[in-house]
Protein 1
Amino acid sequence: MNNSLSVSRFSSISRLVTHIFLIGICFIWMYPFLWMVASSFKSDAEFFENGLSIIPSSFNFSNITRAWETANFSQYFLNTLIITASVVLIVLISTSACGYALGRFSFPGKKVIYVLLVSSMFIPLEFSIIPIVALINALGLSNTMIGVILAESGGGHVMLVLMFAGFFSQIPKEMEESATMDGCGFIRTFIHVMLPLSKPIIGSTIIMQVIFTWNSFLIPLILTLSNPSIRPLSVGLYAFQGENIVDWTGIAAGATISVLPVIIIFFFLQKYFVEGISGAVKG
Amino acid sequence: MSNTETTLNKQSALNSKKKNKKNIAFWCWMFVLPNMILFILFQLWPIVSSWFYAMSNWNGLSSSIEFIGLANFKELVQDKYFWNAFKNVFIYSFGSVPFQLILGLLFAVILNNPKLKFASVYRTFIFLPVITSAAIIGIIMSFIWSSDGAVNYLLMQIGLLDTPIDFLGSMTWAMPTVIMVSIWMSTGINMIFWLAGLQGIPKELYEAAYMDGAGHIRTFFSITLPLLVPIGAVILLFNVAFSLRAFDLIKTLTDGGPFFATDVVSTYIYSAAFAGEIGQPRMGYGSAAGVFFGFTIVFLMLFIQYLRNKVKANSHV
């Protein structure tokens, strides 16, 4: 009796210690974000006096409007939106179609494609950046939005293709046969029968690619070097910091504009994202 | 099917099946084509043409490319700044990967407890840096770690420091600081990887172990850890590959400074090929560095893979 009481007391203490530890960890992990959002609402005077606090004394929107209107963040935001939406669309169409053909049919050349894609998995794309830039230049697309979109859509997308192929290979044959009976051709079966079934994979693909493209830096940095008007947010903020090194409230406002949309999307769709990246190590 | 079916009908059905097969092969090719074009243009061709650029003295602007053989590679292996960047990227990798693996595992084990309240809230917060642009994290962290930032304030409050340290401007502190920021940034994704591994371990194993009187720590070392080894090898591979190609965070946090103290291979290539700080941009020379380091990474990956197979083979004996 006495013994079981002390055990339960021990477990409630250890539970408390666990929560205190986790709250401390979460504070360390959240502080930079809280500081960023708070600083974007502080006046210069408040930032100078109380630069580290994470609760602004009042909600002063002047930094946000300054970043949005005078520092071109409205343009950067629009650019990021266009680039991200286009890349996601291109990647979604190309990977789902490729995964469907590879996962569901046997056709001449299939093995070669598999071997090529899988063996490319560990070849680092980052060190191919020079030929990619040279290719975009050769296509006459340097310093254009289309060039940025194309370069960011590039690659074999092995993970996504394998995810789609794995999913489509598990759908029972009858689904297809009944669609063929109803007079659906290859493309219509894919669009009207198969794609709607693959909603979870589409969800993971969209959210992973949105976050990946929204945050990309190296390719747009190089491809927009001489055309600032097509910069996305990450490159725009880097340039802004370079020109206004002491304007921390402005930098914080720009960072908040850049980061918040992804965080909001993530909060709503994190299930798909977590499933997607877990699949990468399980497979 | 009617019973009036004849051999003739069967024959035509066979023919149409053959035609159908050809038709399907055609559509399959049409379906893989877009992805394969993106793959060939932006992954296969760059690998092939890197070699060509690496043996030229192209500046990226002029249309004439002069072939200079292995001169770029020769210059590269004699450049002490290249070896400095080469050394730095391994310091960065070996300094950050073990910590982000261990911390990620620690958080995963704690949060995997189904009875823990708010586990998903904690998980979301720790994961937040993963979905944030590394470039923007670098910019924000350059204030947090500055003389006026929160880290110095905290260290002075608890009495560890008398005067603030300029972490990112100090030759001694810059690299450790970059490593710490990187650990902070990447622990979340490792936590999710480990959680995926933990969820694959059958619950019955733990129940049996607790029945036998094993404690939490005992079960962790004799059940959890051995069963996580296979997925752990994949996670290690991911981490090493990602850390060796780090660019965004370092570019915005320190830009390789102060005086090349945090210059890594990717920032080295960037300054050689695009920035042209020392005269003309040198795409050819940058490509040579890319080819050289790309090979280093591939060899390292193959080596880890080899070790992994060896461990696997041993565990079966």
Protein 2
Amino acid sequence: MNLSLDSQYPGPRNGAEGVKDIRDEDLIVLVQKGHRRAFDEIVARYKGRLFSFTLRMVKDPSLAEEMTQETLIRVYMHADKYREIAKFSTWVFTIATNLVRNRMRQVSRAPRMLSLNPVPDEDEHPVDPADPHADPSRDVESEELGRLINEATAKIPEKYRVPFLLREVDQLSYEEIQQVTGLKLGTVRSRINRARNRFRQNIKPLLRNETLLADLERIEARAMAEDED
Amino acid sequence: MKCSRIQEWVSLEIDQQLPPENVRHLQDHLQACEDCRGFREDLQIGLRMLHATDPVLPDNFDWKLQLRLSQTLRETARDAEYPWHQEQSGWRRWFARAGFSAGLGMAAVLAVAVLAPGTVVPQGDRGGSVAVAEEPLRLPVQTTANDDSFLDSSRRPIESFGTFGSRNSLSRSVSTGDGLGGRALSGFSDPGFQRIRRLEQEVQSMQRLMGKKDTEIMSLKARVDSLSGRAVDTD
């Protein structure tokens, strides 16, 4: 690589501004050389996308947070193994996807506990796995809509959901999804299409709900105003 | 053209993957087909909802990540410098878990049994009583059986171990419990045995000391990491 990294990089104690314009593939080279701020920048760029992906896969916010951390720790610990034969984002999401799949396999293998007392006590509140209390959405309307969308997404079969979320949430290209999942390009295309069909079926009741549509408008307007600020 | 194919094209169009020659066909079909038009509108609103409700990480995420990464770095450094902390296999793992003291204990028992004069020796000929060996016990290779029988365990009856006595006599002597005392236990007060006990205690105290030093080293390393800027810092 011809890039003079040391001249571009201000050093570990000179603030993160200097790394903002560096592309991911060069940041990871800096991480390999021990520059901590470069890793901070990678964390800042990827943590949201990783959390969004893992949360919509595993549904549990604390588990999703833990898996996001695990992915980023693996990126740091195995930075020296990255070679620029693939995009950095592809490498990161391959790690995340493998972690998520392993976790879901473990969960599906674990024996389910059945309650002998199906009637809950009056003071007992059943825990909804899709409950957004720990899901730090910004306000009530966003929380409600987010919960419903998460439910609709969770109903998509896993094999369709992975390429769908990699495309929609993480905005990976079809070729990158092919590399992450190991599927053929045609399979990636058809699985995304099938996932969208299922997603559309699942959200259809929400589309007739005027309140939710108004919420969507408000959330989008607020996001646009924040971007302008 | 079938609506299922058009809906596939809608998906490709959203991702800007639809070949330009098909875009015109898609537009024509959508103008004519209300179902497919509805499909595209539903999907577009649904995807807007998906993007609008991106979950937000908790504020303390960076702090927790730093903590976990520091911990992982400490563990990695420890494993690199003290490889015996790493997972081992087979008998090495057993010894690592049981500790060096267990090995020493076994050695002590063997040493007492083999070397100490006046060791408890069950003898088959005496019908379950415990007798004192008149001479030091001999190793199996010194038995009256030929050397081949020692190599081949299937052909090696326990009686062939000479002065160790037969399995039956041993079990009898243990079950009856008679004859234990006096000179029979003198091997445990032997100076050699006492020395082994002392050594074992010394090893245990050294292990405790090493544990403390290990902890100190790890905390110092973590401090060095944070001062030299190797750990993730959120400041």
